[in-house]
Amino acid sequence: MLSTRLIAPADNAYAYPLLVKRLLMSGSRYEKTREIVYRDQVRYSYATFIERVARLANVLTAAGVKAGDTVAVMDWDSHRYLECMFAIPMLGAVLHTINIRLSSEQILYTMNHAEDRFVLVNAEFAGLYQGIAAQLTTVEKTLLLTDTPEQSVELPNLVGEYESLLAAASPRYEFADFDENSVATTFYTTGTTGNPKGVYFTHRQLVLHTLSMATTMGSLDSIRLMGSDDVYMPITPMFHVHAWGVPYVATMLGVKQVYPGRYEPDMLCRLIREEKVTFSHCVPTILQMVLNAPTAQGHDFGGLKMIIGGSALNRSLYEVAKSRGIQLTAAYGMSETCPLISCGFLNEELRAGSEDERTTYRIKAGIPVPLVEAAIMDDHGNFHPADGESQGELVLRAPWLTQGYFREPEKGEELWQGGWMHTGDVATLDSMGFIDIRDRIKDVIKTGGEWLSSLELEDLISRHAAVREVAVVGVPDPQWGERPFALLVLRDGAELDAKALKEHLKPFVEQGLINKWAIPSQIAIVTEVPKTSVGKLDKKRIRGDIAQWQASGSAFLSTV
Question: Where does the secretion signal sit in this chain (predicted)?
């Protein structure tokens, strides 16, 4: 063990805890008059925002919220949600961001499992909440959230309506210091098997994540995603990993923030245009939804920078967005990682290369951000070299990774086996530090005696001019073990069959990018690819649908 020198601090030295309240108080010193905007309905300054956070803290305290209580929120992306992201943790309570896109049974499970005591409910979800209220085991009181304060909605144990309560509360609150390792937030992963799992993050973790993300987005010259003069709007739900943590960064920097409420493509495009949004983030499927919106046609998005995460960024989408004026940057993370782990970066060597080479690296998962350690591990716990070829499971260390799963210690032990957090993703690391995600371990396809990446095949298929969206999964095959099956959404007026797709993929076989077994012998043309509640491809459901189609001899299957 190393021998280190410890020096006792002065008796009256202030032990500065890393708390969420530090992020709130930093932003207002830069731009007090900058705005927080909600759709086309609400706008106010940072000075008012700080007052509203204090008012909310007073309302919650009067309702009985104490340090250690769990307070849940059911809302669309809004200024109210942003206020909750600060006020609730700053009281020492735990913010539970409920995934309102889960089934009612799963929402009920998460609320009981998290032991929610107070719930803030948007009027749009009143019916859903009323349907599960009798089965909630720990909830004591509710608050109503509505865009129209005069709207009357009945909720069990209702304290009152949000805006009316805030208007009557004091605009000042003395937020106490407490242990920075206190849990600040919790939410539940959207796994495709079993019940959702609860992850949690402390104040210290959120502050360190915010500082690293701010450095990554604002200081790395080949990225430059968000600085203090940018205008920020999330298109990642605030219930999903704190909208990837960016609202904390934006608030710390005093950035103008725009919250779109329910994701309606035309409203998103309108807000981007009218509020002059310059930075956002989302998953690929949401970006495609925005680009295909009627109000987006003919619109120049020039100046808009976006992080794409949640699913692999393929070259086709990158090029389409670029042609519309949008600069995309791929990033990687997951619910358990708070989430930022890596982000696209081009060093001097890559910037001096061709445009094609720069694109190749921009769509990779990127280089680990400051304070993150990444490694590639085999099934026996041995590390692979960073040679860009050796594949294994991506494992991580960082100061903001969840330390386990709430009330499921055995799953937490599995997550952290060997002192590294196991991602479940197959990846490589190269000599420059780039992470290249090849697939989820459970989605890798074994065919013809070789491993095939569904993500790589999706990228190559997406380059066909007729393809708007693609998902590839492995399906059982008596001869080859598995064969890839492609689910395709075509562009308007386009046609494509399995034979034509085979011809499209042959050159990639000849180039050695994929083997001949990677060419799907069967495809399905659909109008929509199944997604999870956060917009990712739902490959478990896709496999089930394909099995049903094959069993029934569905007419829309195309076979070579």
Answer: none
